[in-house]
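Support request, please re-run this one:
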Amino acid sequence: MTEEDTIAAISTPLGVGGIGIVRISGPRAVEIAEGIFKGKLRPKNVRHRRMLYGRVVDGDEEVDEVLLTVMRAPHTYTTEDVVEINCHGGMAVTRRVLRMVLERGARLARPGEFTMRAFLGGRMDLAQAEAVADIVKASSERARKAAYAQLSGVLSRRVEELRSYLVEAVAYIEASIDFPEDVELPDAELRELLGRVLEAVDSLRASYSRGRVEREGIRAVIVGRPNVGKSSLMNALLEEERAIVSEVPGTTRDFLDGTLEVDGLLVHLVDTAGIREAKDEIERQARASTERQAAVADLFLVVLDGSEPMTSEDEEVARLVGRGRKVIIINKVDKGRVVSDGEVRDILEDGPIVEASALTGYGLDRLKETMLDVVLGDRAWESDGLLITKERHKIALDRASEALRRTLRELDEGWSYEVLRVELQEALDALEDILGRTTPDEVLDRIFSEFCVGK
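Re-run finished. Output below.
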């Protein structure tokens, strides 16, 4: 990318719709629009943030009736001149307008290039830029909230605050090194400052588990012996016939999945084959598939048939889920319950027990609430919405935490300030990496390549 490039792309999904938007950004954006637009007002005469009515023309041919918006640098998304052409929705017209723009000197934007220009232009830091992609991809209300909190700068402001404390500490240390007779920094004061920063960094790190769930949802794997009603339970939760239900044990041989939203959180349900002794190669493969799904589960929904005595196969299910997070579901209570809580606790020591009937729908609302309680713990989201949702940020905070711990240990052991300065610089670099100030170009390219072309 060079500063002289003018880029363009279709910024709305291709297909039939109300409008299709072609976005142009760069030094020639207005000039290119001027060459294809016909209306009472000219794009070149518009100063900023004006929408013009007219037509896109290709020579003597009128291509479409449009609304054209002119936005002048630096007060735009990319900090460059930006023009957006609102066409009638549809692949043919938007592609035709884009082709006309490209023929007049723009080039097709790469994935995420509009947002990369916003980042490089200083309109947003890297954490905020990453949130743009997360908002576009958000498939649940909680994911949207988490992404918007990051886009609004909540995380950036906290990281910048911690960075400022470390800059202060480094400044004192460097002054003490350069002017030892004039500057005296009490070790106790330095230790207190670094301890506060470490505590805040570790608090952010601890929020990652919750933040990842808010952003990605939870993977809830349904397990149980054959014919306890796993597939019926999945269908009832999804409110659709996703899985085949039969009285014949072993109907489900491979996993099935589906998605629902519970209190704004995405829940990925996975229905697995019943756990029992494998009698043939197909059942062995089905058991292996269940074990693979269990290995990546955020939550187990352990289904027991409450209308029948428990069996050794239920014990095998308990061994499979181990100490993983779980909700124990006593299913088929509409037939009468013969399994006691004590019998359940003999094989499954932890996890809340919920009575339910997949057939009648009894207990399903409580099951949904219990799933969230187990995964999220305290349902209350932090008042400022500050959660770490990206693995990249978690890794950077891990680096900062380790560097701060080394600094405090070396301070206690009486190491020189020259050594402490090196450790603190490592912590500073880690925090600045979150904001994109020390991020290598290849990492930036990888981050922005995950965006859609029009963003």
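The first helix runs from residue 29 to 36. Confidence is low (pLDDT under 50) at residues 248-253.
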